[in-house]
Fold:
Amino acid sequence: MLDQKLLLELETYLNERLIMELEVCKSSEIMEESLEENSLRFELDEFIHKNRKPTLQEKLFQLIDQKDVLDTEVYKKAGLDRKHFSKIRSKTDYRPKKNTILALALALELNEENTEELLETAGYSLSDSDTNDLIFRFCINKKIYDRFEVNEYLVHFSLTPIGSSI
Structure:
């Protein structure tokens, strides 16, 4: 017959060891999960770093520099006031309306590719199923960069003109 006192000690010993083993296992699992999370975060950071494109502000002012024009020329030609243009320049999280970006593209006399790139930086694109976008695409391809002329086409099709001209 087993000694009850020794049996109780053995059970206590086993329970303590099993609890310690469980804690070690849980700790290992937590560490593995933490390592996996850190690995995913690192991968995400790396992915963002590799794939991030310029912001709207960076792209816009890069284009202004490439065209060698003054900011005042651009915002006046686009029909924007100084305050609105300053907001675009200084607030990295500011996202102007699509027509504002299109007005800037016209002011800079951008081709279709550069216009698309500028729009993309703000999360927009030219759609082949939108009359407004088709008018802009047509005008850009025909090198019609005069905001007043573009507005005449927009108004003719009962669309909202850009800038402060109408």
Observations:
- The chain has a mean pLDDT of 87.
- The chain has eight helices and no strands.
- The radius of gyration is 31 Å.
